[in-house]
Amino acid sequence: MVDLLSHDMTYTSDEMMTVTASRKLVDGQVCFVGIGLPSEAANLARLSHAPNVVLIYESGTIGTKPEILPLSIGDGELAERADLVVSVPEVFAYWLQAGRIDVGFLSAAQIDRFGNLNSTVVGCYEDPKVRLPGAGGAPEIVSSAGEVIVMLRHTERAFVPSVDFVTSVGFGRQGEGRAGHAGAGPTVVITDLGVLAPDPTTHELTLVATHPGVEVSEVLSHTGWDLLVADPVVITEPPTPEELGILRDLVARTKEAHSR
Amino acid sequence: MVDLLSHDMTYTSDEMMTVTASRKLVDGQVCFVGIGLPSEAANLARLSHAPNVVLIYESGTIGTKPEILPLSIGDGELAERADLVVSVPEVFAYWLQAGRIDVGFLSAAQIDRFGNLNSTVVGCYEDPKVRLPGAGGAPEIVSSAGEVIVMLRHTERAFVPSVDFVTSVGFGRQGEGRAGHAGAGPTVVITDLGVLAPDPTTHELTLVATHPGVEVSEVLSHTGWDLLVADPVVITEPPTPEELGILRDLVARTKEAHSR
Amino acid sequence: MAEFATLHDAIQDLVPDGATVAMEGFTHLIPFAAGHEMIRQGKKDLTLVRMTPDVIYDQMIGMGLARKLVFSWGGNPGVGSLHRFRDAVEHGYPAPLELEEHSHAGMAARYAAGASGLPFAVLRAYVGSDLVKHTEVASIHCPFTGEELAAVPALNPDVAVIHAQQADRQGNVGMWGITGVQREAVLGARKAIVTVEEIVDELSHRGPNNVVLPSWTVAVVACVPHGSHPSYSMGYSTRDNAFYTEWDLISRDRDLFARWIEAFVIGTEDHAAYLSAISAQPQGKEALGG
Amino acid sequence: MAEFATLHDAIQDLVPDGATVAMEGFTHLIPFAAGHEMIRQGKKDLTLVRMTPDVIYDQMIGMGLARKLVFSWGGNPGVGSLHRFRDAVEHGYPAPLELEEHSHAGMAARYAAGASGLPFAVLRAYVGSDLVKHTEVASIHCPFTGEELAAVPALNPDVAVIHAQQADRQGNVGMWGITGVQREAVLGARKAIVTVEEIVDELSHRGPNNVVLPSWTVAVVACVPHGSHPSYSMGYSTRDNAFYTEWDLISRDRDLFARWIEAFVIGTEDHAAYLSAISAQPQGKEALGG
Predict the structure, then answer these.
(1) Which helix (H) or strand (E) element contains residue A63?
(2) Which residue of C103, C249, D68, D281 pairs with D47 in a disulfide if CB–CB is 3.0 to 4.6 A?
(3) Kind and range of the H or E element at B226?
(4) CB–CB of D84/D62 below 8 Å?
(5) How far is it, in rounded angstroms, from Cα C50 to Cα C72?
(6) Which tens digit of pLDDT belongs to each residue from C38-64?
(7) Do the Cβ atoms of C256 and C288 come closer than 8 Å?
(8) Closest-CA residue in chain C for B133?
(9) Do residues A164 and A157 touch, judged by C-beta distance below 8 A?
(10) Are D234 and A79 a contacting pair, CB within 8 Å?
(11) Residues paired with A104 in a beta bridge
């Protein structure tokens, strides 16, 4: 149990983002998790309201219950605390492609008006301004998972009208939708400023919530297009002392372990 | 080491067949083994002149070194004494289909003039006189293995002019050859009477050796077509005391273990 | 998450008449108890799927539970023919049996495609075999090399039934030794029933070839000790080879077969009763005056 | 049967200039020592294949060993960019680098097809992704359902290089933990080099996920303790996370990078010397006055 008094009840915008994302996971769901922000939020969910969430990492660990956050997709912590470990060809064929994943949980360098994701290049492919790491598992996670939760920090560089390269399709260049995909695609985008969701008919990302203390104007100024705003815009519930306590303990344990 | 004096130096025609077949395996070869006669001969080879032969059973045991002969393809003895055990889809895809097998070692209910094998039906498929167990792994073993050693007892019912059903292709209904197959097919057929091999040009099975005391006429009378006979026909070397000793010890160990 | 139930309830709730059922195993871990329970409940019109149908399918076919068999090798391992299977195919007794027949390579690839969520599998197989005239195999060309290969349709049974050594209290299933195509059968099926030798606090992974099926991939776990008899469960029981030999005699005779099923399956209320009946009269044939 | 050799001889004999080399690993068991040896021997015009190229490929690309990279995700795990890789792609320094880029699902399927002796693999992938405009993906239809799927060509590298925990005296290789696509890389390659932490009398299978590669599937085994540093070998070493962080600084600067390679790789005669140099000067960057 967490000792609430031991924790400062102010919180950072990253903490707000992580807590908000973790709340989107439902207990018992099977979740394919990306490293970094998604992994932090997914494990917060597992350690708080969703103890039975099944976390799958693309390195092949299934039913993963890390005590500390992994720095890399292949940390030993993931293998040692998994129900089973399978090969990478198998995790993509027997587990992701087969449609066993309820929620894909990932980040990207760029996202656009229609929820398309870019993790390949900034600029043109042949002569890029910035060469990014590349697709990894993202295109098939976004295509095959039942739905996708996207997490990234809210900046004009990240939120662009149209991504330079469609690594993973959200709703298409023109918002045409999800034909040819098993899953519903990005149903929510969680940032350090608020929450976006695609319009049910036009698929255009719409601001549906802001975090406490964040003005809608601030979100708009950090978005590279004229962002649609829901009416009313909900204010996110601030992190509870328990959520913050569990998150900070997790982060502290992680720092301590990785500094050894 | 085998105590030669403890063994009767007369031998049965089945023992002659098994010893002859075991001699065909070369040390270090990778051998995909069928249950029954082939398994007995392959293990005799492993326990005598070919200690480094790699035996693979279609149940997924690779580098199998049984101390007693398996009654079934899935005996625990096979798994306990294997270098590794893999799934059945894997043994066929990663090991047989990938072309890692030097020698396929199997039997059949019927074989014809051109080395085609039948383990499916006697009579017509829709209304069979005798329904046989079926293909199992045979079609792809005969297709993919570098070469195939066939073992079966020499009877007119087994050696037919043309098989009722081509379960596994030897050299085709008209002896047309091996187009479309990675492996060389049945390069030798070993029976309790002698040894047959396909003619290099016509692919027709030809008697190349008889076991000691077996007349060529006896082989012909047990064959359902006018069997070609090589000139000269070699006489098989009789089993050595050591071969017989090892085989009989193996069979005795096996009987003892399975009667428990 | 898997639920725990009795074998009786699992079969009653998850195996409707007419279902396509894959009871897999490669002579190890054969789910005999589950097959016997289907006979007791008088299931009908089943499509039975299995690479290596053996004595349990012989019993189910002999009792007329099956409309169709999808398979690649049907025999009594180490003994010979399946006489009830042959009687059904050769004489339509007790009922005609439709066959969908493949090679092992083809069946294994079909299960793997099913587990992968693909509609078909590609493999090098069937070249020149008469099987292609009697089963569903297509030819497909490599879009890069032009090479011609075989394609077979995926297998996605309504229900997969397997026997494993262990389940933990969360319903995670652990098995080891020869595990054949069981994992693909479970992952490719719409629902899976797993009978286990033992419920344990922690899976013991006694290997070789430790396989784990997460609880959430299994519908029901039923604890049925010696549920694989006369097959075996590595680490728990050894194969009853004498039974397989004896089955050759029992199954050759229609009446003797019927009396054996009556005495040892229909006449026993569950697997525990079957086991005591078997151990009380190991010589089933003589016991029946066969 | 695998032969035992020094890493120097294995790389010299089995890795010719111009070869297609897959050095696989999913942040665990990365064959760093083998990559360093290729740098020492000045290999040229290599096509490097790997799902997750990381620091070792950054070093090899930075030294101009590679003509082409076949990959699906290239980064410094947990840290960020590969600056030598970016410099090659963005500025052609020290030489242009041709890219053949896939998704993880595509690369994994390509390796599996290679290990299966098939010319291509079928999967559900690339739908709507711009990747299809820049890589070799074909569309293929299911001959039974008509459904359209993606096809990718098989991967069969000239040489696969992996690091494992153990080999026994017959050359059978044992590894456990996260093993990524290493088995498929070895089985799909024409030849395989395996560096191991230890030669043992019997593989200890410490699991989870015990994988065995039979001796006859491996060309050469070289015993190279800590051959995965700064990556880790479960059961033998832990990941040197500080090094990965430091690499971000070292690799940002062309000269600092060159001096680091000179001091710690080219300037060391083998992996043992590299390890003592690293442990003597853990702060490589400061040591070089960077």
Answers:
(1) strand A61-64
(2) D68
(3) none
(4) yes
(5) 8
(6) 999 999 999 999 999 999 999 999 999
(7) yes
(8) C74
(9) no
(10) yes
(11) A32, A148
Phi, psi (deg, nearest 5) at residue A258: -80, -15
**CA atoms of C105 and C110, how far apart (whole Å):** 9
In the residue annotation, B58 being an active-site residue is answered as yes
d(CA A72, CA D78): 5
Residue-wise pLDDT tens digits, D108-117: 999 999 999 9
Determine the length of chain D: 290
Q: State pTM to two decimals.
A: 0.97
Distance CA D230, CA D237 (A): 9
Predicted pLDDT of residue D120: 98
Q: Are B188 and B25 in contact (CB under 8 A)?
A: no
CA distance D203 to C5: 40
Q: Which residue has the tokens 């490599």?
A: C142
Chain D CB contacts of C122 under 8 Å are 118, 120-122
pLDDT band for B258, please (50, 70, 90 cuts). confident
Answer yes or no: is pLDDT of D164 > 70: yes
Contacting residues for B127 by C-beta, under 8 A, at least 6 apart? none
**For residue A99, which residues of chain C lie inside 8 Å, CB to CB?**
117
Alpha helices by DSSP H, listed for chain C, are 7-14, 32-40, 55-62, 83-91, 104-116, 182-188, 241-252, 254-261, 271-280, 284-287
Please, what sign has the CA dihedral across residues C26, C32, C33, C34? positive
B/D Cβ contact: 3+ pairs below 8 Å: yes
pLDDT tier at B3 (50, 70, 90 boundaries)?
Answer: very low
- Residue D48 CA to residue D45 CA, distance in Å, equals 9
Name the residue type at position D63. M
Query: What span, in angstroms and rounded, lies between the C-alpha atoms of A259 and A3?
Result: 25
Cα–Cα distance, A8 to A247 (Å, whole number): 12
Q: What pLDDT sits at residue A260?
A: 72
A108 phi-psi bin (left φ>0, alpha ψ -120 to 50, beta other): beta
Q: Do A93 and D85 touch (CB under 8 A)?
A: no
Cβ neighbours for B199, distance < 8 A, ≥ 6 positions apart: B205, B206, B228
Q: Which residues of C touch D145 (CB under 8 A)?
A: 119-120
